[in-house]
Amino acid sequence: MQMVPLLSILLMLLALVCAGAGTGTDSGRRSQMLFARIFSFGDSLTDTGNALRILGSRATISRPPYGETFFSRPSGRASDGRIMIDFIAEALGVPEPTPYLNGKTAADFRRGVNFAVGGGTALDPAFFEGRGLKLFVPVSLRNQTSWFQNVMQRLGSVHEQRNITATSLFVVGEIGVNDYLIGLIGNRTIGELKTFTPQIIGAIHSAVTDVVAAGARTVLVPGAIPFGCEPELLTLYPGRVDAGGYDPESGCITWLNDLAELHNRELRRMLAGLRRAHPGTSIVYADLYRAVTDIIVSPGRYGFRDRPLVVCCGRGGRAYNFDMAASCGAAGTTACADPSEYVSWDGVHFTEAANRRISCDVLERSSVTAEAGRRRIGCD
Questions:
Q1: In angstroms, what is the C-alpha Rg of the chain?
Q2: CA separation for the pair 116, 54 (Å, rounded)
C-alpha cells in the first residue's frame, strides 16, 4: 500500500522537473538545441549555387575572381569566399546544405537544402509585372517554399519528415532587398516603395508559417541589411555627406536606411505575432542591419580598412570603386590585393571577412549555437 503514495510523489517530481525545463528563456532552449541540418531560403546573400544553375555563364558570379579566397574558383556564391550560411553551418557542425537545383537524390536532401536564389524576390513575378517593373530572376519566396514541399515529399513518411524538420535549423531570409531594388531601378518613389513593405512582410509570414506547419522547431529570420550603405546605391544616388540625406557618421544614405528600418520594424512585429501563435517554436529575429552598421561605423575595431564603403572588386576611378556598367567579373575589373580588409566585395555583396563578422554577430545574439561553435568559425 505504501508503493502508491511513493509512485505518486515520483510522478509529481518528474512533472515538476519537466515543467522547470520548459520555463527557461527562448535563447537558453536554443543554445541547447542540437541541429542535424539546415534548410535555408533567401536571395544572393544566402544562395550557394541555385542562381548559377539557372543563369550559367550569364551570371557574373560564374567568373573569377568570385570564390578566389576560399574555393579558388567561382562557387555559386556572390562573394570572394564563404557567405553567412556557410559560417552558420560550420558553427553548428552540420553539412553544407545542398543547393536545391544541384540535388539529385533523397540522400542529397537529407543533408539539408538551400533554396535561396540570387536575384530572387519575396513577392511573386506578377506583382512586378503588373507595375511594369523588370525582374532580375523570376523566382519568388513562394517558389522556394514550393521546392521545400517537394523535398519533404521525397524524404519518406510524414513521421520521418517530422523527425527531420524538428531537428533542423530553418533560415528564412534575408529576402526582400531585391523587391525594393527592382522598384528603385524602375524609378519608383520612396513613398511607393513603402507600399511594398506590407506585402513583402506578408510573403515572409507565409514562408515561416509553412515551415512551422511542416514541423520546424527553430526558425531564424534575418532582417534587411542597411540599403543606404550599399556602394551600388551610393553610386546610383551620388551626393555629399554634408549636403544632407547622408549619415555623417557612416556615410550611408539616410532615406534608404529609413526604408530598411521600416521593413525591419514590420518584420519584428510580424514575428512577435507568430511567436504568440506558435509558442512551441523558437522564431528568432537576426539583426543584420545592426551587424553591418556596426562594421561600417567602426571598421578598425573589426579589422577592416578606414573606408568601409569602398568596393574590393571593381573597375576603379569612382568614389566607391563601383561602376554600374562594369560589375565585378566583367572585363576591365580587378579585385583588391587583400579582400579581408574590405567590407564590400562587389558593391552589392560582402567579402568573406565581412560575412564571417556578420555571422559571429548573428550567432551571438540569436544563441542558436554555443560559444564553442562560434570559436570554430573564428569569432572573438
A1: 22
A2: 12
Identify the sign of the CA torsion 184, 186, 192, 194: negative
Catalytic residue among 349, 359, 361, 366: 349
Other CB atoms within 10 Å distance of the CB of residue 213: 10
| H or E segment to which residue 40 belongs | strand 37-41
Looking at residues 101-108, what average pLDDT do you find?
94
Q: Cβ(88)–Cβ(171) under 8 Å?
A: yes
Choose among 117, 144, 136: nearest CA to 181: 136
Q: At what angle do helices 190-213 and 254-277 cross, to 10 degrees?
A: 30
Q: At what angle do helices 254-277 and 288-297 cross, to 10 degrees?
A: 150
Phi/psi-derived region of residue 201, left when phi > 0, alpha when psi is between -120 and 50, beta in every other case:
alpha
Q: What is the DSSP track for 310-341? A: SBSSB--SSTTS--TTS-TTSTT-B--S-GGG
Q: Which three cell numbers stand for residue 280?
A: 512551441
pLDDT digits (tens, 9 = 90+) for 178-218: 999 999 999 999 999 999 999 999 999 999 999 999 999 99
Residue 346 falls in the annotated catalytic set: yes
pTM of the model: 0.90
Residue 242: active-site member = no
Per residue in 130-184, pLDDT (tens digit) is: 999 999 999 999 999 999 999 999 999 999 999 999 999 999 999 999 999 999 9
Please pick, among 40, 44, 75, 282, the residue that the annotation labels catalytic.
44
Cβ–Cβ < 8 Å for 149, 211: no
User: If you count them, how many residues does the chain have?
Assistant: 380
